[in-house]
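Project outcomes to date are best conveyed with an example. Our students and postdoctoral researchers have been running inverse folding experiments weekly, and each run begins with a structure described purely in tokens. The record below, which covers 234 residues, was selected by the lab manager from last quarter's runs and is presented without edits.
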């Protein structure tokens, strides 16, 4: 088995370990199941209003924190009465779960495609993986801040899905780095600690990044990538 096949095998093994495909399917079908019995126009209106609620909750959770934000405040920010908001959501925790999944799910999908590409070297894959990681943190700055800060307020199956998604995403990086080390494209570090270092460095972006347009994001991506790739050079 060549190195590229080994990486693909690790991706699939990680997905099986964390049951990410099954859980992702459950998550996506749950979001789409909005008042199936209603007519099309009402369903569209419900979806639009629900998106307003999610945006309002995202702003408030980022500004005040999940615990300090009440359902009444979310309803008011979305232009609703507290009682009527439950026509669109089941609970405040449901909103938190949806927000935490908004950035991580597309990041997983994009990273899987990069890692499975047989035409890319491990160095090229790591460069692309950093684009995904830093791009997700800056594009979804509010959602990813909530993802990192408010996770402990999730419970039961939602918390389980959160951790499976997060650990699977991190395992994709770790397996990529491990194979790159084996092939001599990266310095002989511990893949585990190299991955922790990368996430420790990049996740902190959510604490200081202020959106200032594409130019600022490009500068951050270039500087972080340069530092990390220099660290990983053999």
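After processing, the design step wrote out the following sequence:
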């Amino acid at each position: 088995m060549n190195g590229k096949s080994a990486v693909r095998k690790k991706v699939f093994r990680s997905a099986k370990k964390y049951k990410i495909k099954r859980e992702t399917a459950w998550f996506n079908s749950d979001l789409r199941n909005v008042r199936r019995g209603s007519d099309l126009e009402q369903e569209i209106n419900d979806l639009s209003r629900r998106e307003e609620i999610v945006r309002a909750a995202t702003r408030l959770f980022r500004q005040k924190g999940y615990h300090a934000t009440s359902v009444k405040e979310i309803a008011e920010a979305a232009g609703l009465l507290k009682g009527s908001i439950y026509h669109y959501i089941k609970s405040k925790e449901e909103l938190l779960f949806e927000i935490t999944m908004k950035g991580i799910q597309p990041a997983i999908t994009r990273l899987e495609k990069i890692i499975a590409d047989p035409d890319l070297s491990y160095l090229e894959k790591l460069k692309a993986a950093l684009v995904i990681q830093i791009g997700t943190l800056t594009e979804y700055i509010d959602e990813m801040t909530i993802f990192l800060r408010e996770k402990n307020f999730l419970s039961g199956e939602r918390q389980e899905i959160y951790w499976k998604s997060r650990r699977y995403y991190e395992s994709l990086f770790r397996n990529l780095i491990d194979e790159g080390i084996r092939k001599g494209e990266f310095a002989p570090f511990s893949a585990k600690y190299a991955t922790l270092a990368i996430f420790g460095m990049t996740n902190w972006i959510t604490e200081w990044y202020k959106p200032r347009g594409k130019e600022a994001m490009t500068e951050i991506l270039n500087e972080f990538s340069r530092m990390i790739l220099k660290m990983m050079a053999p």
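The first helix runs from residue 3 to 18. The chain is about 75% helix and 0% strand. The training component of this project remains on track.
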